[in-house]
Batch of 2 targets.
Target 1
Amino acid sequence: MNRGLLYYFMIPLLLFLCLLQSTAVARLKIAGVKPDLVLLMVIIGTLLYGLRPGILWAFIAGIGLDIFSGGPLGASSLAMMAAAGVAGLGHRPLSRFNPLVPLAAAALGTIVYAVVYLLILGTLALAGWSTLNLPLFETLRDIVLPVTLYNTALMLVLLPFLNRMPESQDL
């Protein structure tokens, strides 16, 4: 098994990024949109090391996001695990060295994460456990689409670094 240093430092890195996401990432806003660094790191880890560790990292990162942000506990974990599932498709069958694979994983992962998270929030509101009322289509247009573009652009910037990371040799 050939695992790079990133594999072993992923959990502390994700928890640090959760804290950063909840505090300082607001300074990276462009036109009112901030990137989702935690989600991007989970997608990168999943592309490098596969679905199994990606799901575990997504679960831990989601709990960290919920703890630091005050959101419903577990909502980010479920949404992040769904996004890791999408990114896991690019681990073996598709090569991460093809630039379209990480870009598609970032775009689709962001959309899946946002839709699952919004569905969870909507379900909690319908059940009467939350008073939050988000108009779904306006939220998708005004928040999810710009964040998807931002995350995909960041993945484009990170591609040279991603391609230098050692690939997992797990079968």
Target 2
Amino acid sequence: MKKKCFIWCIGLMAAVAAILSSCGQQKVEYKVTASGDSAEAGIVTVLDYSINVYKDLESNSCGNCVDQPVHLYAGADSEEVTEAIGDVVERADDLWEVVSCEGNTVVLREKEAGTVDSIGMLSAPEGITLTGTVSGRDVPVISGKQQEAEVEFPKNPQRLAAVYGPSYELLTMLGAEDKIVVRADVQTADFPWAEKVFSRINKIPVLNNVHTSVNFEELMKYEPEIVYTFPRENELTQLKKAGVAVLSAETEETLEGVKNQVRNYAATLGKDAEERAEEYCRYFDEKLSWIKERTDKIDEKERPDVYYAGVDILTTYGKHSDIIQVIESAGGNPVSCELNAGNRTQIDYEQLMAWNPDIIFIDHGGMNDGKTAEELKKEIQSKSVYKSLNAVKNQQVYASPSGVFYWDMGIQKILLIMNMAKILHPDEFEDLDMEEEIMIFYEKFFDYSLTREDAEKILNRENP
């Protein structure tokens, strides 16, 4: 009897060991503690998810829209910040669960041992300091640029997922629209021209709310071979675990980044796509050189101060964004060129008034169910607080054109530079026919023939 019991115990221990082995080591726990009494406007980042901290209710154009269920306002204390972190993880994360959220500390734990390879960067706006402590299984904490999942790209991919905003127009330009099996909701939500120009876009299944997070299980139903997506570490990790190749977006800090992105996409698709990419890059260089040959000769005193707004009036682009080069190439002086920030960074009303730009461009309006660019234009022109701005006094507020996608990101950026140059320096670019340039671009890269009336509507942000 003792021998049988001993054998049974040995068997039980082996089974337990096997289970433990299959489950991997301990689960990772991540304790995040906030200190400080009053957050300024900015962004809280935890596990590669972002929580907007708005200056006030007025500056929050999205409100409680579906893409932004969790947000804060300036003045939020440490307990409010940790509560928001717990909330956003519960809503958006498939890898982590909230163990506890008490006072100024929230404890997170991976749901399944072995699924987390690293922990994304942790940051908060001035006034609040976040510290993270890892326990359980040891994993690296990423403090800088996001890492891509390291899975080899297939040689002849047939099933592509266009999750990142500009990825649909990019893949179409590279001749791969027929290989897209799933796409993002944002690619048609505010772009009726995309529905007109892209032949398959309304026939392709849609992933919703991709700006917040991607539903991994829903995405995998379409069996993608390559996913073109956002640089969110947790989602990249999931794709890596599933053996799916991924190309994630990077912030474009210079105009060279536009061409680099096109070439990176093409490299995943093959020789034909790479030839198309080089055709685009030659076009981009030729047009940019033509513009700069003229604007480089413009005296500094003749360059107007330009402010570029996106999402809302008090959101702009800093020195780590290629919008600075866009404005400079077009012959303008970017007022935010010293702002230590990248894309879509919040400023306060006082900063905008101090810059007092001569010309204001608005883009990305309508994103996240916020106000459209046209509504933002009317707002800045009608509100008394903005009436002293030179751009408003002189009626120099413009809504940037928008065709199949935003012009300030993706491959249509060269059209943005041309149009901006014509607005800033109409005499120097009197011979620039923007309607004609739009028609040529769409024919060359989207294989779609626009009428002059179509091009004029795109230029004026009008629907088909």
